[in-house]
Amino acid sequence: MGNYEVVYNGTMLGTDMLTVCHFQGSELSDEDKQVWADLIRSEMVDNLQGALMTSVAYDGITIREDIPGSVGVTYPFTLGTLTGTNGSSSLIPQSALLLRKYADTAVRPNQGRIYQGGLPANAVNSSGRFSGPTVTDVQLFWQDQRIVNLVGGSSLQMVIKSSNPTAPNTVAYNPVSRIVAAAIPVTQRRRKEGQGS
Predict the structure, then answer these.
(1) Is 13 a member of any domain?
(2) The pTM is what?
(3) pLDDT by residue for the chain (197 residues), tens digit each?
(4) Going by C-beta distance under 8 Å and a sequence separation of 6 or more, which residues neighbour residue 171?
(5) Residue at 53 is within a domain
(6) How many structural domains is the chain composed of?
(7) Is residue 118 part of a domain?
């Protein structure tokens, strides 16, 4: 069984916009990893691309085995860089849509976070929340990332990685059961009021 750290290599206005997730599952060949990268691009086209501004681009993923000293290898998208298609010129660069990862178990870690940036100001409605269609599109994309089935039978599941796996009632990796998007814009610099870690 392999444990992988995957970086979704994005940029916004030419500045890195990276999302790091962890996965557990089949041992993967280099060919499997390239197929995985291209599957992610396909799922971005299906659900995420229309929500992202044209100044946002993803060009591939970086995968490394989640062991000390391991070096990541970048797998560019075979069909090229994917650019957002939302033509709004009004940007909210300090805000992101928060998605919570849950493992439906009492064993820790059972919560994690994903921040999706690159969304335009017109995705926020008059009540100051992300609009329903934007929330739905982003959540569908990340929900698709939760379970990965590759040609040839290889499969992986997104996991929440523990920062202290030797603590009581804790495992090193806990499978993500569900991903839930929150409509209130957040920043990564500070916790959202009323929310835990």
Answers:
(1) yes
(2) 0.92
(3) 899 999 999 999 889 999 999 999 999 999 999 999 999 999 999 999 999 999 999 999 999 999 999 999 999 999 999 999 998 878 776 789 999 999 999 999 999 999 999 999 999 999 999 999 999 999 999 999 999 999 888 899 999 999 999 999 999 999 999 999 999 999 866 544 444 43
(4) 107, 108, 109, 162, 165
(5) yes
(6) 1
(7) no
